[in-house]
Write a structure and sequence with these properties.
Helices cover 31% and strands 14% of the residues. By secondary structure, it is an alpha/beta fold. Strands 2-3-1-4-5-6-10-11 form an 8-stranded mixed beta sheet, with helices on both faces. The chain has a 3-stranded antiparallel beta sheet with strand order 8-7-9, with no helix packed on it. It has a two-stranded antiparallel sheet with strand order 12-13.
């Protein structure tokens, strides 16, 4: 503090204080699509709009893809939804271009990147989908919308749930083989729902409902929980039956997630994103790391440009450690630590204003494969016989009365 003359008592608040590390809202769904009859003032083209309550979606009007995708999410849970509306076009190629958008102008899927500036980092979308626009697949090229969503998801530290081609199992696997991203979660087939518009059963892409399931899981259990093996609400069936066991495994092993029915309704089935990196193959692990890394990064902005002092250095370390202790207590991580490694911080580096903190933690992987080993044990016959003999009194053979 600057020492100036004073006769009496003065109180100042120290700038050397710990910080609270906070996780952003994890269950924010981002949907891009069309709504030709929307209120353009409420849903302008290529501008993210945050839905805070279900009734806000009424202004989307009928037609297009956005209204049914929002309904699919809200069937699973109430959550924040970021809407990006693009122009509808009858030409499929032009429509695809409208969804893909332009990175330099932040249109199409790139419009999601505007959300943080509009709503703050806590409400940027974390579960992305382009319902109805990711399933097209010619067998040679990856779906362009899915490919572009992977780019945007990486910048947002989000994941994109995309729909496979919904034709055959092999086509779904071929679709996956054209994509490689820790941030793409592929689901195949579509779901069947009852449409009040046509008074009949209709197929719909499953991606919006999977986003809703993950949002529900985040709110009820935590972002470190997998969305797999959870009920899907509001559907009446699927367009192609997938059986539990070898059939589902054939898809899941290569990162194609699906829907099964074990006799108690339809459930999500699959944990894996479209990557060959075994350490990052589980979506729940990828998301957990994202939220922790971002929370620490945002919290430590508080220390930027503060002076090198013992208090500030200790507060940086202890704030991070307290955060990780809380996450471990909740079950979000198995353990973690923050420390200053002397080998990574020499005096010249610190004199240049640079400090390196080391952080470690381990998200819990989902228990995907539970193996049960059953054994026969013939010694239970001895137990059986001992029990019978005890009940009979074990008095030897019966003899005729004299």
């Amino acid at each position: 503090m600057v020492l100036t003359y004073n006769h009496g008592v003065r109180v100042t608040e120290s700038a050397e204080t710990p910080v609270l590390v906070k996780i952003a809202e994890t269950a924010v769904v981002g949907i891009i699509g069309t709504a030709p009859n929307a209120d353009a003032a409420k849903f302008p083209l290529n501008v993210p709009v945050l839905l805070k309550k279900p009734s806000d979606a009424a202004a989307l009007g009928d037609g297009g893809t956005l209204k049914e995708a929002v309904d699919g999410v809200l069937d699973q849970t109430g959550t924040y939804i970021v809407i990006v509306r693009v122009a509808e076009n009858a030409d499929p190629a032009v429509q695809t271009s409208n969804i893909v958008g332009d990175a330099t102008q932040q249109t199409g899927v790139h419009a999601f990147l505007k959300a943080e500036g509009l709503f703050g980092w806590k409400f940027k979308p974390r579960l992305l989908c382009a319902s109805g626009f990711t399933s097209a697949f010619d067998g040679t090229n990856a779906n362009p919308v899915a490919a572009e969503l992977a780019v945007v998801a990486d910048k947002l530290r989000a994941v994109a749930i995309v729909d496979g081609p919904d034709t055959t199992d092999d086509a779904a696997k071929a679709y996956r083989a054209k994509l490689n991203s820790q941030r793409l979660y592929i689901v195949d087939p579509k779901v069947m729902v009852w449409s009040t518009a046509v008074n009949d059963y209709v197929p719909q892409p499953a991606s919006a409902r999977f986003c809703g399931v993950q949002a529900r899981v985040d709110r009820e259990h935590g972002f470190w929980w997998s969305l797999s093996n959870k009920p899907i609400r509001g559907i009446t069936g699927v367009t192609r039956a997938v059986a539990y066991g070898d059939h589902a495994n054939y898809l899941n092993v290569d990162g194609v997630n699906t829907i099964i029915n074990t006799g108690e309704g339809f459930i999500t089935w699959g944990n894996r994103v479209a990557t060959g990196d075994d350490l990052w193959v589980f979506m729940s692990v990828r998301r957990t790391a994202d939220f922790i890394n971002e929370a620490i990064e945002k919290a430590y902005m508080e220390f930027v440009d503060k002076p090198f002092t013992p208090a500030n250095l200790k507060f940086m370390v202890e704030s991070g450690r307290a955060f990780l202790r809380d996450l471990k207590a909740f079950g979000a991580i198995l353990g973690g630590n923050v420390w200053i490694d002397p080998d990574k911080n020499d005096d010249l580096q610190m004199a240049s204003g640079r400090i390196v903190l080391s952080v470690e933690f381990e998200p819990p992987a989902p228990m995907e494969d539970i193996k049960i080993i059953a054994h026969r044990n013939t010694l239970y016959y001895d137990v059986l016989l001992d029990g019978v003999l005890q009940e009979l009194g074990n008095n030897g053979p019966l003899t005729a009365a004299a």
